[in-house]
Design goal:
The complex is a heterotetramer of chains A (about 525), B (about 400), C (about 450) and D (about 250). Chain A is mostly helical. Chain A is about 65% helix and about 5% strand. Chain A has a five-stranded antiparallel beta sheet. A two-stranded antiparallel ribbon of chain A has the order 6-7. Helices cover about 70% and strands about 0% of the residues of chain B. In chain B, helix 2 runs antiparallel to helix 8 (about 205-230), helix 3 (about 45-70) packs across helix 9 and helix 4 (about 80-95) crosses helix 11 (about 255-280). Chain B has a single domain, classed as ABC transporter involved in vitamin B12 uptake, BtuC (Orthogonal Bundle). Chain D has two domains: about 10-90 and about 175-250, P-loop containing nucleotide triphosphate hydrolases (Rossmann fold); about 95-170, no CATH class. The mean pLDDT of chain D is about 85. The chains are: A mainly alpha (about 525), B mainly alpha (about 400), C alpha/beta (about 450), D alpha/beta (about 250). Chains in contact: A-B, A-C, A-D, B-C, B-D. At the B-C interface, helix 2, helix 3, helix 5, helix 13 and helix 15 of B face helix 1, helix 3, helix 4, helix 6 and strand 18 of C. Chain B: Keywords: Cell membrane, Membrane, Transmembrane, Transmembrane helix. Chain B: GO terms for molecular function: branched-chain amino acid transmembrane transporter activity.
Chain lengths: ~525, ~400, ~450, ~250
């Protein structure tokens, strides 16, 4: 039932494959027989088939292997026929390339495991070094850099000679250097040159390559390699500081996003809103619902799902916020500790309501393509979702600040929070402003939920994991001061990320909590406390 | 102590409360032990254990009411003191297991053998003696509260800031105790206790004795709280709650008062935790969870902040509701009911059950008697819950 | 003091009323749970002790539904011993002391014949003394750290030797992994599993430098640093794999970070012991293609039993997308074993059933027959599955036969001489060296 | 102690060159002022002149950025906290009447008595005859004998002002700082308050901050006018109110 016999050495297999590929292409058996092996549902047969097909020189080789990689290759175990489902949905017979009407009923996708995936990638690398598509060539060069397969050297050389794109040329040069580094009969000076090329690359893969060189290299080469490793490591150590700072900013942005709504409801209005986390959760569930609708009705819009979810989450959470304010909070003004009690009860109700409506398990919220993946900046990896969340957070912060400063509602809010009676006597409908302020804070929490759904799990417990941190941020920054919240969030984020590598995640977090406790002793009203006699009035 | 403190603190309500608790403390164990199994007059052991747990919660609620209701210190981390007391007792109980653990190691508790520890960490020394453990039950929470309070009150951390840093404290302890490296059994905590002072913890007699002790502890805690709040110190505490800086300008060293009452309260919470552990059979870091501390504050609010009887009653009522709702067909919806209870109590009974009850009787009482008494309970009643917030 | 006295007299009646009310409340509370559970003679009660709220609801709610489903199916077949089964569901709310309280309530008040429940180790530890004291039966369906064999508990989930060790063997043999990251949540199961694995890896010649152990708190959500560390650790030129005992909610952000930082399974595969179909339902699995999980059951396994079970389950829950997972299968096996044992001894008396259970066989859903062993663990096959793009697993390896669960790990010094045997030795921690019951002794 | 002139040593309160600023705003600017033993001084000045901040500095609530604040000629008040300063004998009545609203009038006075204020002392406190006599006397002085068992919160605004003055009396300090004692009072009450303060002045040093010129006039004591945190004018009420700059400041520019 299962294959237990893929114990053969991977490298050996590949070298046989590639030898035959360049020296004796005609030796491969009948192409159809090789292809039929895919239908056996044995990993060993699939592996053999990959090798044989790749080395056949047949024009179908590339489509077959690339479709295998993407899971579009299926096989009928009875007739031993193998089919390719093309990207456009058309189905062709793998061996002949002839069009087929539909897949046989019992055709199943050819299965892969990690070993096979690596073989497939290596085979594709060999097949696409000379591809007309620059992106493929780049990928092929990188895959050769990793596999540094000696027999590909001539192909790499010819590709290098032909290459006109500068970045790909660089990649080929590095791939070539990797091959030479491991080529047993390469000259010492060639190897030293290769080491300097790899050293110049300077990333973790270069480090991996150099450290795997082992001790059996000639002394001069080994020495050069060791010094290159040291150079790369010290370079990477420097970059790791930058990386920590970036991680800190990213964590800080998440904390800020979670806390910013609380900075309004708690910081400005003085309502200890324990249901704040649940507003975040509602935003996340709104995102889920939006994505569900898009998935089933308008799949093409998926990349815009978050853009649609942001205003909706704001409205949903904001509306619920207004409802809560009108039905509960407004009876409790001036008794902040009682709002704690009522909103705690409310948070239980909201959690259980979501649990009843959506089930207790995690819900899937996907990343749109523009939030997936990462890019390299120097030697650090910056993931798009974290970057976007940072930008998004700062944008929300800026908009909120501008709103409080420049709009009529913002003016009214500040007026009411500073002197309710005076504001009322000047004709401001204070109860309306209260409701809108609370709605605004809740709505922003909802927006935070949209962003957090991209990095955390969407479950009824989502809010609980942010509520304590949010309070810490607001209190640390100084209640009633949005800038304090901003500085507080980033300070805690960065401090956490610099402590984590030293102390570990758990002790790091404990250390942060202790630091907050001690900091509050030093500044009992947070980082940005109001001074003067207004404070205790 | 001095007799006048006792006479002053024992008014009718307090006496009734003491008598009821004493009655429960004697009657329930007697009924459990003496009545035949299955008789409707026999309280099953399962209920004895359950009510023992409620009583421990009631002591915790008293300790919170003492600082919150009378001194305006809202601690959202009181569960930490409860848990520390519980751990001190748990450590004693673990040491009592001796070689009866699954690995049969005479000194090391199972979880240490399990993680290849070769010797007992220093902070486990002494816990094989009950007297030492009992001392630690008071000393560890008391010392933590003293250090924490000394720092916080001296630098005048008040109101919400204080609440949040107490929460940070219990959260930090939660994370710490979760760590297996800390040597307190990590997430699993301490469990599988065998005996206490030589008595099997699962025997009915031991359970009844623990139940009785819990009643006794509740009575003593209540008396101590009454003695404190009916003394002049109680008046100072209320003064601090209502107008802290005014009190300071009168020449009272506010931080000393807060520190005293905070430490006293932490010790009481520690005792509650210590009685709780042998009755429920487990102590684990989740007792440090900030949510638990918030819930304990809610018991006080439900029962009536600033009324000691109310605090104890609130703890029992809320926990009984929890027990009741988490079984049977309502189980999936119990959070709705609990949440609704909290919301409704705040909206409709802002003074809590006992506070509202007292306020309801006020007209009737004034109708009967024109002499307005200088009673601190009436003071607490009048101000309800809001006045303490004036400080913030 | 005079004023106080008048006041006291004036308020006496009020206070008395207060006291009376308090007494009434106490009395009512004490009496009402007495209302004897209507233990009708024609039903057998089955306790279900799974959290329906709080942090563990995410995993345990499904198990509650599973037991309700199994009881439903059994009743359709006519019940057990001619009596209908009746489920008694309680919610211990992810609160460990509440687990003990509810267990006591189920056994004492509801008089259940057996309890199916618990997920976390601490919840099991919490109810253990209750089951021992009141002598009832608990079926525990989740993979756990082992090091336990109790008379009243039947462990239908995997012991470490039924999950962790085969997974590491697979990675060593098939993926040629030389460098290991053991990443886990800081609690007992990962600690123990990692301890066992560390000892095992060292016995296979892996150097200390090639093992990195990392613990994170519960619900850890910021994985940037740790994923970067893993990446760094993996760039030492040796094939690296991550063995993940990360628990529950923390997995989703972990996998999201892995996917986004571009760690592919072909570079650094991650094998997880706590990630099943239910957990994957919350993640877009396309970037995770090829990462692994080790379980004793996968929904994707094609056997007639499994297909029938999935179909009936989805019909019962009226959700054609509802997934199945390993702990559910454990409950299926456990439930069937209990039914068989009860029918064998024609009684639900716990003592008789406990004695009858070892040796009882029940088909598992993957085509084999699982057997209850004298140490109260069962025999199970071990599968390694790769994550597919659709949130399911593709089985890439399985053990040739069923693996017997070890209560005590052979890899740990403290337990290597211990066995659990409730049939002959009547002992959960029998020392085969000293031939004595009671651990290592002294 | 620094070198200081005799005037400083003999003064009950001595402020010299005091500066305080909050976030760049200079609340007190080179303020110098002395209060002789047994003196009653009225402080006037427009809003924001620094009157309350000055009291904050004297009572230890606010620490000055620079300057000297001496009590009784020798004690440096800038180094002490509120409690210590209160114990030394400086009592303060707030601008907004601040009494313990949830306690009775009698208890308010009891709390104010300058007896043992330690935790131990209050815990084991038992009333004494001397104490209740003193309370009775104060109650009489502030005309609240009939309200002794009422909750302070139920008193009228004027009564609260008096209660607070009564608490100062019970505290029996050497110096009383009284912030706007007649704000919100009727004319009759204002008059009675002036009489009360004069009576108290017989054996206490008093500093009164007040806006009400009629009241200040009725007190008939030396007046200091503050403006923008420093002394603008000093002298009798007639002198000060004739001062052109004072008029300018009060009537606005």
């Amino acid at each position: 039932m299962f294959g237990f016999c893929f114990g053969r050495a991977h490298a050996l297999f590949l070298s046989i494959l590639l030898l035959s590929c360049f020296a004796l292409p005609a030796l491969a058996g009948p192409f159809e027989d090789s292809v039929a092996k895919f239908a056996n549902d044995e990993f060993s047969d699939t592996e053999a088939a990959v090798g044989e097909v790749a080395s056949s020189g047949n024009p179908q080789a590339f489509p077959i292997i690339s479709s295998l990689k993407d899971g579009r290759l299926s096989a009928d175990p009875d007739s031993k026929k193998v089919f390719i489902t093309q990207a456009d949905g058309k189905i062709v017979d793998a061996a002949s390339g002839a069009a087929v009407d539909k897949l046989p009923d019992n055709a199943a996708a050819v299965r892969l495991n990690n070993r096979l995936r690596r073989s497939v990638e290596a085979a594709l690398g060999g097949l696409t070094l000379l591809s007309p598509d620059p992106a493929r060539r780049l990928a092929a060069a990188q895959s050769v850099f990793k596999s540094h397969e000696e027999n590909l050297l001539p192909t790499v050389d010819s590709a290098l000679a032909k290459e006109s794109v500068k970045s790909i040329k660089q990649a080929f040069t590095e791939a070539r250097a990797a091959i030479i580094l491991f080529k047993s009969d390469a000259s010492e000076s060639d190897k030293l040159d290769a080491i300097s090329v790899v050293k110049a690359r300077g990333d973790q893969e270069a480090l991996a390559l150099l450290t795997s060189l082992g001790g059996d290299a000639p002394p001069l080469v080994a020495k050069a390699a060791t010094s290159a490793v040291a150079a790369i490591q010290s370079n990477l150590a420097m970059w790791s500081m930058v990386q920590n700072a970036w991680y800190g900013l990213s964590l800080g942005s998440v904390l800020l996003l979670a806390a910013i709504g609380l900075a309004i409801t708690f910081g400005v209005m003085g309502v200890i809103n324990m249901a704040h986390g649940e507003m975040v959760m509602l935003g996340a569930y709104t995102t889920f619902v939006v994505q569900e609708v898009i998935r089933t009705r308008y799949p093409a819009l998926f990349d815009y799902s978050l853009l649609i979810a942001v205003p909706l989450a704001f409205l949903v959470a904001g509306a619920i916020g207004v409802l809560i304010e009108r039905s509960i909070i407004r009876f409790l003004y001036g008794r902040p500790l009682e709002t704690l009690l009522a909103t705690w009860g409310l948070s239980l109700v909201l959690q259980q309501a979501v649990r009843t409506a959506f089930g207790p398990t995690n819900r899937e919220v996907g990343n749109p393509s523009w939030m997936s993946g990462a890019f390299e900046l120097g030697q650090i990896t910056i993931t798009y979702n974290r970057l976007w969340i940072l930008c998004f957070t700062l944008a929300v912060f800026a908009i909120l600040l501008a709103m409080l400063r420049y709009t009529a509602l913002g003016l009214e809010m500040r007026a009411v929070t500073q002197n309710r009676r005076m504001a009322a006597s000047m004709g401001i409908a204070t109860s309306r402003v209260d409701a809108l302020t609370f709605g605004l804070g809740s709505g922003i929490a909802g927006i935070a939920g949209v962003a957090l759904s991209q990095i955390d799990n969407v479950s009824p417990n989502l809010g609980q994991s942010y509520i304590i941190d949010s309070f810490m941020v607001v209190v640390f920054g100084g209640v009633g001061n949005l800038w304090g919240t901003l500085v507080g969030a980033f300070t805690l984020g960065i401090a956490n990320k610099f402590l984590e590598p030293v102390a570990g995640a758990v002790l790091g977090k404990i250390a942060i909590l202790v630091l907050i406790i001690l900091f509050i002793q030093k500044r009992p009203r947070g980082l940005f406390a109001l001074k003067g006699r207004a404070v205790e009035a | 102590m001095t007799p006048h403190i006792l006479t002053r603190s024992l008014d009718r309500a307090a006496t009734s409360f003491i008598l009821i608790v004493a009655g429960v403390g004697v009657l329930i164990p007697l009924s459990n032990l003496l009545m035949p199994q299955g008789s409707i007059f026999q309280v099953p052991t399962y209920l004895v254990a359950l009510w023992g747990k409620y009583l421990c919660y009631a002591i915790l609620a008293l300790s919170i009411d003492l600082i919150w209701g009378y001194c305006g210190i809202l601690s959202l981390g009181h569960g930490a003191f409860f848990a520390l007391g519980g751990y001190a007792m748990g450590m004693y109980l673990m040491r009592q297991i001796g070689s009866r653990g699954v690995y049969g190691n005479p000194v090391l508790p199972d979880f240490m053998v399990f993680l290849n520890w070769d010797k007992l960490p220093w902070y486990w020394y002494g816990f094989d003696k009950f007297a030492f453990a009992a001392l630690m039950v008071l000393l560890v929470p008391g010392l933590l509260a003293f250090c924490f309070g000394w720092l916080a009150f001296r630098s005048r951390v008040t109101g919400v800031y204080l609440s949040i840093i107490t929460q940070a404290m219990t959260y930090a302890l939660l994370l710490g105790f979760f760590r297996n490296d800390f040597g307190f059994g990590g997430n699993n905590g301490l469990t599988d206790f065998k005996d206490i002072l030589g008595f099997n913890v699962q025997a009915d007699g031991t359970r009844c004795a623990l139940f009785f002790l819990s009643c006794l502890a509740l009575m003593i805690a209540f008396l101590i709280c009454r003695a404190v709040v009916t003394s002049k110190l109680g008046k100072v505490l209320i003064a601090v709650r209502d107008a802290e800086s005014r009190t300071r300008f009168l020449g009272y060293r506010v931080e000393s008062y807060k520190l005293f009452v905070f430490t006293l309260s932490a010790c009481m919470a520690g005792v509650a935790g210590a009685l709780y552990v042998p009755q429920v059979g487990i102590i684990n870091p989740s007792e440090f969870a900030p949510g638990n501390s918030i819930e304990a504050v809610i018991w006080v609010a439900v029962g009536g902040r600033g009324t000691l009887v109310g605090a104890a009653l609130g703890a029992v009522v809320v926990n009984y509701a929890k027990t009741f709702f988490t079984s049977g067909p309502l189980a999936p919806y119990w959070l709705f009911m609990l949440g609704a209870l909290f919301i409704l109590v705040t909206l409709l009974l802002p003074k809590g059950i006992v506070g509202t009850f007292n306020a309801w009787w006020e007209p009737w009482r004034t109708g009967r008697s024109t002499g307005l008494a200088a009673d601190e309970e009436s003071a607490a009643r009048e101000d309800g819950i809001g006045a303490a917030n004036a400080a913030e | 003091m005079l004023t106080r006295l008048t006041h006291d007299i004036a308020t006496m009646t009020r206070r008395r009323l207060l006291a009376a009310t308090a007494g009434l409340v106490l009395g009512l509370a004490a009496v009402s749970p007495f209302s004897p559970a209507q233990a009708a003679d024609d039903t057998i009660k089955v306790g279900v002790l799974h959290s329906l709220s709080g942090t563990m609801a995410i995993s345990e709610t499904t198990l509650k539904d599973t037991i309700l489903f199994l009881i439903d199916e059994q009743n359709k077949k006519g019940g057990v011993l001619g009596k209908k089964l009746e489920a008694v569901v309680v919610d211990p709310a992810s609160n460990w002391p509440l687990f003990a309280e509810k267990a006591r309530e189920l056994i004492t008040k509801d008089k259940v014949a057996v309890v199916f429940g618990c997920w976390t180790s601490v919840s099991r530890k919490s109810v253990l003394p209750v089951f021992k004291e009141l002598n009832n039966i608990l079926f525990y369906p989740v993979q756990y750290e082992g090091e336990e064999s109790e008379r009243n508990v039947f462990y239908t989930g995997a012991a470490p030797n039924q999950q962790a060790i085969p997974a590491v063997d697979y990675l060593m043999k098939e993926e040629k992994v030389k460098r290991w990251v053991l990443a886990g949540t800081d609690y007992v199961y990962p600690r123990t599993t990692n301890k066992i694995l560390e000892a095992y890896l060292k016995s296979k010649g892996v150097a200390q430098d090639d093992i990195m152990i990392n613990y994170t708190p519960f619900g850890h959500s910021d994985w940037q640093t740790i994923v970067a560390d893993i990446k760094k650790f993996g760039s030492a030129g040796k094939k690296t794999a991550v063995v993940s005992t990360i628990n529950g909610d923390a997995n989703v952000p972990f996998y999201k970070e892995l996917g986004n930082q571009g760690i592919k399974a072909t570079d650094i595969p991650v094998v997880a012991f706590s990630v099943g179909e239910e957990e994957l339902a919350g993640i877009d699995t396309k970037p995770l293609l090829g990462h692994l999980a080790a379980w004793n059951y996968f929904q994707s396994i094609k056997t007639p039993e499994n297909e029938k079970f999935i179909k009936e389950w989805q019909a019962y829950t009226k959700n054609p997308k509802r997934v199945t997972n390993d702990p559910m299968e454990a409950h299926v096996i456990g439930f069937n074993m209990w039914v068989k044992a009860v029918e064998k001894v024609k009684s639900t008396d716990p003592d008789k059933v406990i004695d009858a259970l070892p040796g009882t066989e029940a088909p598992n859903l993957t085509g084999g027959i699982s057997k209850m062993l004298p140490n109260h663990h069962i025999t199970k096959p071990v599968f390694i599955g790769e994550i597919k793009g659709n949130g399911q697993f593709d089985v890439v390896w399985k053990t040739p036969g069923l693996v017997a669960g070890d209560a005590w790990s052979k890899e740990l010094d403290g337990s290597k001489d211990l066995i659990g045997d409730w049939v002959e030795k009547k002992c959960g921690n029998y020392n085969v060296k000293t031939n004595k019951c009671g651990g290592q002794g002294s | 102690m620094n070198v200081m002139d005799t005037r400083a040593t003999s003064a009950m309160l001595y402020l010299d060159g005091v500066h305080v600023s909050f976030d760049g705003f200079h609340a007190i600017n080179n303020l110098s002022l002395t209060l002789e033993p047994g003196e009653m001084r009225a402080i006037i000045g427009p809003n924001g002149a620094g009157k309350t901040t000055m009291m904050d500095i004297i009572t230890g609530k606010t620490k000055p950025d620079e300057g000297t604040v001496l009590f009784d000629g020798t004690v440096d008040l800038t180094r002490l906290d509120e409690t210590r300063i209160a114990e030394l004998g400086i009592g303060r009545k707030f601008q907004k009447p601040t009494v313990f609203e949830s306690q009775t009038v009698q208890d308010n006075l009891l709390l104010a008595l300058n007896v043992d204020h330690s935790v131990r002392g209050t815990l084991f406190w038992r009333g004494s005859k001397a104490e209740s006599e003193r309370i009775d006397k104060v109650l009489e002085t502030i005309r609240l004998t009939d309200a002794r068992n009422r909750l302070a919160g139920s008193l009228s605004h004027g009564q609260k002002q008096w209660l607070e003055i009564g608490m100062l009396l019970a505290q029996d300090p050497k110096v009383l700082l009284v912030d706007e004692p007649v704000a919100g009072m009727t004319d009759v009450e204002t008059h009675l308050t002036a009489e009360l303060l004069k009576q108290i002045n017989k054996n206490h040093t008093i500093m009164v901050v007040e806006h009400d010129m009629t009241f200040v006039r009725e007190l008939g004591v030396k007046v200091t006018c503050l403006h923008e945190g420093s002394v603008l004018a000093e002298g009798s009420i007639d002198q000060v109110s004739a001062n052109e700059r004072v008029v300018e400041v009060y009537l606005g520019r």
